[in-house]
Amino acid sequence: xxRYEEARERYAVLGSNTEQAMEELAKIxxxxxxxxxxxxxxxxxxxxxxxxxxxxxxxYPGAARTPQELRQDMEKAFSLIPGKHKxxxxxxxxxxxxxxxxxxxxxxHYESWVQWAKEQDLGLDFNPTCFSHEKAESGYTLSSAxxxxxxxxxxxxxxxxxxxxxxxxxxxxxxVTNIWVPDGSKDVPxxxxxxxxxxxxxxxxxxxxxxxxxxxxxxxxSKVFGIGSESYVVGSHEFYMGYAMKNGVAVxxxxxxxxxxxxxxxxxxxxxxFSNEMLLHVSRPVRWDSDHVVILDDELQxxxxxxxxxxxxxxxxxxxxxFDASIxxxxxxxxGTITPPALPTSxxxxxxxxxxxxxxxxxxxxxxxxxxxxxxxxxxxxPFSKAAPDHGKEGKRYEPYSGSAFCARNVPYYRQHVPHGLx
Length: 423
Known about the structure:
Shape: globular
Oligomer: single chain
Low-confidence stretches: 340-423
Number of helices: 11
Mean pLDDT: 82
Largest sheet: 5 strands, parallel
Radius of gyration: 22 Å
Number of strands: 10
Strand order of the largest sheet: 4-6-8-9-10
Order of helices and strands: HHEHEHEHEEHEEHEHEHEHH
Structural class: alpha/beta
Helix content: 25-40%
C-alpha cells in the first residue's frame, strides 16, 4: 500500500473523498501574475520608473527583458506547478515593435500572448495599467480634474476591456479584466466628493460598451491607502462595493489592500450574497501592502475554508498579486502558487548541498539552515555571496536550467533556485 492509499483510507473514515477533492482541485485555474517575472516593468515603457505606489525591491539577477524571455520563465514555472492555469497580464506587456501609447492598444498587440496561451493550454486575464506613466504623475487618473488626462485613461480602459474580450473569445475561457487606479492624496484633501464623482463618471463611460459576458468579466479593485495616497484614496472599498453592486460588475478583494487587522476572508460570504462573481487577489501583506510571495499562513487558510466549505469556487476567480525582486523569480511563482507546506513530502526539494541535516527547503521553517539565511517561504539569501555573475554589467541573462538538482539555498546561478520534482 502506498502512502497515498493509506492516507486515502484514513480520510475516508472521516467522510472525506480524496479522489473527489483532487478532481475539484484540477478544475481551479489560478491566474498567475506575469509581473513577478520582470519587477512590474512591462515592455512598452522600459525606461520609466515605477509610480503609483508600486515598488519592487531587490536586484536579484535574471529578470525578463523581453516577452519571449518572460514566457520562457513562465513555462519553467508552470512545468513545476500541478494543473492548468491562467496568466494575468498588464497592458504594458504588449508584444509589439510599434511605438504606441496606452490609449492606442489593440488586440493585435497581444496576439503572440494568445498564440502562446493556446500552445500551453493557458487562459489569460487582463488589467489596464494606470500607473508608471507621465499622465499619472499628478496622482490622479480616472478621477483627474484635467479632462484631457481623464479622457486618456478612460480610452485606455475601454481598449483594455476589448483586449480582455478578445482573450476570452480566442481561448474559450472567460477573461477577468480588472481596473485598479492609484488615485488619491498624500495629505487630507479639501474635497473628497468631486474626485469620486469623476471616477464614477469615468467608470460609467468605460462600461457603457456592452461586451460578451461569456468572454469578459469586469472587476474593480479598492485599496485602503498607498504610497502617495496615505490620507485619501478615491477608489475606496465602500466606493467600489457600491458601484459594483449597482452596476453588475465584480468586486476584487486584494489581501493586502485593507487595514493590517482587516481580512478579506470575512468579506467573501457577504459580498457574494449580492453579486454573482468575485475576483480574489491573493497576496501576503507584511505590515502593509508589501506584496510578499504567498505562503500558507492563517489568512490564506481562512480564505480557502470560506470558499470551499460554502461551495463558492464556481463563482470565485483566484489571482496572485505579489512581486519580489530580491529572490529568484521562477521560484517565487512556483512557491507562491502551490505554497511550501503543500509540497509533496516524498517528492519535494532535494537536500540542501553541504547540509548534513538532509532537510529540504520545503521544511525550511524547522531546518537548522534557517539560521544561515533561509526565509519562511523557503527562498534564498543573498545570491551574490558566492560571486554570482552580474548580468547587469554585461546585459546578459543566465542560461536556462540544464541540470538535475535544484536547491532554494544560496546557489549562484539563475535557474538553480527552482524546486525540482514537484507534481
